## 1
Amino acid sequence: MTAIEPRLLEVESVEKRFGGVRAVDGVSFSLAAGELTALIGPNGAGKSTLFAVIAGQHRPDAGAVRFDGRAITGLHPAAHAHRGIGRTFQTAQGFASMTVRENVQLALAARDRAVFNVARPLWSRAADAADALLARVGLAAQAQRAADDLAYGDVKRLELAIALAARPKLLLMDEPTAGMAAAERFALMDLVRAIAAETGLTVLFTEHSMEVVFGYARRVLVMSRGKLIADGAPDEVRANAAAQAAYFGEAA
Ligand code: ADP
Ligand code: MG
């Protein structure tokens, strides 16, 4: 018998319908720990819906999701977060009207289930941990600023720090570089790649910039009309006729 490599995430025949729309239509794949994988496909392909199923915001109509060896299908989103699934969103979610540091402190306190009972020592400890996270994402100098005052690129860094505060094993990033200039995009993805390499974090990200996809992903999944139509190394996917027709043709 061959030993089977353990998979961090296993998505099995997942379906999610909205009325007559099959947003996710029988998708199966798995991710090994530490992989940096891109999920691409035209608008409406079902990428964000698939993320919402994996992160527990949507219950699938069929299929199953296993994470770290356990079935998590249909559990509450907080249970997904607690098991180690984090996400950042396609559109910025808005921050609490506090400083950059306080937003990260709040996320750290939430992880420690202390959000409604923020004892002072805990809150101060969270400040040190928040500063460490802010330094890691390049926001140390912005710690005291109001979070809703940040420049767009820094908003994305703060979202990353807040997501990391929960210490995820898997981070789902939905179009992390949308709306960014090229240099800013690469800087953010360099950061994500470095953090993944340091911590063993597994990252699944959706992305429209082919430079980012082929510059950073070790593996590329392609969705079209709810289905997974290609899955492989970047060069294999680039040469795949179905993926080209569904995506690269259109993008050109
Ligand atoms: P992508 O992220 O790849 O652009 P989405 O997952 O956002 O695609 O959307 C996939 C399909 O599901 C689209 O047809 C979209 O209109 C539909 N859809 C997504 N979310 C909802 C929702 N909450 N209610 C109804 N339809 C939705
Ligand atoms: Mg989307």
Note: The two ends are 46 Å apart (CA to CA).
## 2
Amino acid sequence: MMSREPFVVAIDGPGGSGKGSLAFSIARALDFHLLDSGAIYRLLALKAEKLGVDLDDEDKLLELLPDFDIRFETGAELAIPYLDGEDVAQSVRLESSGDAASQVARHGRVRKGLLAVQRAFFKPPGLVADGRDMGTVVFPRARFKFFLRASVEIRAQRRYKQLINMGLSANIAHLQADMAERDERDQNRNASPLVPAEDALVVDSSLLDLDQVTELVLGHIKENG
Ligand code: C5P
């Protein structure tokens, strides 16, 4: 029997590990809310670019937070992000936005400022939170913590397919190089580096498809909930 007390399922891992699609399908299966925390960093980066704020300038980035107007609407396959009331689903997924997000995400005080924004997503009946530090920093007491891994080659291929499906152009070699660079930045930053929580279940998704990973993760939640 699953308990009725609301709980958090934290899903962390590098870009292209499949955690976004996994989080979406787990949230749907449990009928839980969904937090795509990467989208929050991407939206802040988009806002900074819109207003001409230098991504290295932590003080100026912090000044954006009081007016950081974002919301998500549930779409058929993904959540649709809005920034200042404008649908930014396309621009938020661009590689350039991911890259800008990882620059914004290096700043410890910006990360702190975004904690409350992220924690506000936790409402009954529960939350599936997808990111880099969900299990370590944002929801350290999450009932379930998963950390997805996959080789950089596989992750680049997945991202390539995603971008092509969205009608965007992409180059696998560039994607792989960008991903390796972003991993390096995310793993080696001082503020909340990308590492599995000590109590996370690490899943290598290199050889598994979405249905297989979903089954494994849901099975674990049902057995231990
Ligand atoms: O997951 P996604 O590719 O959308 O994340 C974009 C960037 O945002 C990541 O490369 C990472 O630097 C940053 N991020 C983070 N902490 C999170 C989620 C994303 O630092 N919880």
Note: The pocket of cytidine-5'-monophosphate is lined by residues 15, 37-39, 41-42, 98, 101-102, 105, 131-133, 182, 186 (CB under 6 Å).
